[in-house]
Design a protein that fits this description.
This protein is an alpha/beta fold. The chain has a single domain, classed as Vaccinia Virus protein VP39 (Rossmann fold), CATH 3.40.50. The protein has a seven-stranded mixed β-sheet, with helices on both faces. Helix 5 links the parallel strand 1 and strand 2. Helix 1 runs parallel beside helix 3, helix 2 packs antiparallel against helix 5 and helix 2 packs antiparallel against helix 6.
Length: about 230
């Protein structure tokens, strides 16, 4: 395992990033984010969760990068009926980015993180127990095998949009949406999508504090069979 990380060293950068992103989290949520960083750093060599080893790089490239998608996600959640819990599937979640971050920042979400690597799914289960997150669950499976209806299906640096949407289609609720976190505007990937299967309804640029790189969310929804008949 890696040497112990003093998460208090990361607190100022995290708080500055949250302020820049306009995210108002309570003390318990901030502490959980820091504790998650500690677990990610501690178990990285055992579970091979990320190639990054430097804590400050993990903060900007992973934590703040994931947090940049929280406000757009919250806006989408605000547009949904409030009657029932929202089911969220994070595909190829690896070390839980962005799935764990979403579960911490949006407690109304039921977040399932699916990965084909058993030890990574086990790590998510460990995080859920350690951080006392009853709305978080790790699943060891191929996404193609999942058929539960999810309201939101997300990914971050997982696969091309056509593969992501095809593989996760069976897990999508009829009124669900895909949230794909990408680098620069993926015009070629969007052009490769089948227009009778997937509708891109918004490409939302993101600004990640401390990271000089293009980021965006590609929002998509499945095309209903009746609309293409």
């Amino acid at each position: 395992m890696s040497a112990a990380l003093n998460v208090e060293d990361l607190r100022p950068g995290l708080l500055q990033g949250l302020h820049a992103l306009g995210l108002a989290l309570d003390d318990a949520q901030v502490q959980r984010l820091l504790r998650f960083m500690e677990l990610l750093h501690k178990w990285n060599k055992v579970y091979n969760l990320t190639a990054l080893r430097n804590p400050q790089e993990m903060l900007t490239h992973h934590m703040l990068d994931s947090l940049a998608a929280v406000q757009p996600l919250q806006r989408h959640l605000a547009s949904l009926p409030a009657a029932q819990p929202v089911r969220h599937l994070d595909v190829g979640s690896g070390g839980g980015l962005p799935g764990v971050v979403f579960a911490i920042c949006c407690p109304q979400l039921q977040v399932h993180c699916v990965d084909t690597v058993a030890k990574k799914a086990a790590f998510i289960q460990q995080v859920a127990a350690s951080l006392q997150l009853p709305n978080l669950r790790g699943i060891h499976a191929r996404v193609e095998s999942l058929e539960e209806p999810y309201d939101i299906v997300s990914c971050r640096a997982f696969a091309a949009l056509a593969d992501f949407t095809t593989w996760s289609r069976a897990a999508m609720a009829p009124t669900g949406v895909w949230l794909a976190m990408k680098g620069k505007h993926p015009q070629e990937e969007i052009a490769a999508l089948a227009p009778d299967q997937v509708q891109v309804f918004h490409v939302e640029p993101l600004q990640v504090p401390g990271l000089d790189a293009e980021r965006c969310i590609v929002w998509m929804r499945p095309v209903a069979a009746s609309s293409v008949a």
